[in-house]
Amino acid sequence: MTPNLTLTRRNLLGLVSAGAVAGALTACAGPGGSSAPAAGPSSTSGLDASKASGSISFAHWRAEDKAAFDKIIAAFKAKYAGTDVRQDITPSNDYQSNAMAQIRQGTVGDLFVAFRGAQFIAMTKAGLYTDLTSTNIADSYEKSLITAGQSDGKQYGLPYQLVFNQPITNEDLLSQAGYSTLPGDWNSYLDLCDKLKSKGVVPIAWPGGDVGNAGQLFNCMIMNEAPSDDMCTKIEAGTYKVTDDWFIGMLKKYQQLIPYMQPNATGTAVEPAEQMFASGKAAMLATGSYHIAAVRALKATFPIGMLAPITVSKDKVKYVGIYNATFILGVSTVSKNPNTAFALLKFLSDPAIGGQYGSDTAQNVTVKNAVYTNSNLTHLADWTTKKTLLAPRFQFSNLDIRNAAEGTAIAVIGGKSPEQAAADAQKIIDQQIKK
Question: Which of 67, 226, 259, 384 is a Cys-bridge partner for 15, taking CB atoms 3.0 to 4.6 Å apart?
Answer without folding.
Answer: 384
